[in-house]
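Postdoc handover notes: sequence design on the structure in folder B. Input tokens:
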């Protein structure tokens, strides 16, 4: 009888007490055996942002809020692709980088979406284009580069900042390096 009681106790314990099961742990969004890595738009973001973007901690995964957006966590922040605007973006929580139709832009603050492009008064735009094209007014490549430059400037700098940069140029004869680098992307 004691053997039957012992056997019954063992059976009850085996059935009622859960046994730990070892499951393979994968990073969020990754398939088994897949390591987190950047692809497509997020790889382009990494090329543009550099070390500020950190390294991937997860693979790409759907926004848990069901927006259709795609997220990927990094060691320094969050990369996300906005479905509604087809915009790959990275944020460290305060600084932001994004690929927009106007080119690569950065901004700071709480807004996760890129700011709408600044719209400068037509006289400012035409003045810039006239000055930019003054050396070769009939050069189509120059006209295209000048148009690209003003679009990227408007997407990056507020009108106030642009006017300040222009006034500083008139006084000192030089532009800030980030401004020059932005304009050079259109050449």
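Designed sequence:
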């Amino acid at each position: 009888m004691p053997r039957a009681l012992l056997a019954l106790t063992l059976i009850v314990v085996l059935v009622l007490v859960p046994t730990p099961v070892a499951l393979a742990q994968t990073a969020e969004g990754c398939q088994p055996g897949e390591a987190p890595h950047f692809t497509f738009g997020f790889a382009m973001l990494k090329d543009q942002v550099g070390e500020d973007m950190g390294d991937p901690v997860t693979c790409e995964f759907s926004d848990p809020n069901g927006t259709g957006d795609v997220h990927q966590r990094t060691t320094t922040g969050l990369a996300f692709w906005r479905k509604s605007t087809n915009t790959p973006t990275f944020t460290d929580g305060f600084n932001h980088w994004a690929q927009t139709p106007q080119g690569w832009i950065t901004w700071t603050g709480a807004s996760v979406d890129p700011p709408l492009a600044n719209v400068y008064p037509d006289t400012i735009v035409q003045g810039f284009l006239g000055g930019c094209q003054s050396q070769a007014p009939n050069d189509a490549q120059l006209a295209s580069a000048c148009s690209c430059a003003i679009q990227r400037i408007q997407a990056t700098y507020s009108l106030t900042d642009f006017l300040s940069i222009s006034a500083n140029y008139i006084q000192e004869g030089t532009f800030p390096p980030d401004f020059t680098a932005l304009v050079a992307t259109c050449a």
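Context for whoever picks this up: Residues 40-108 form one domain. Don't rerun without checking with the PI first.
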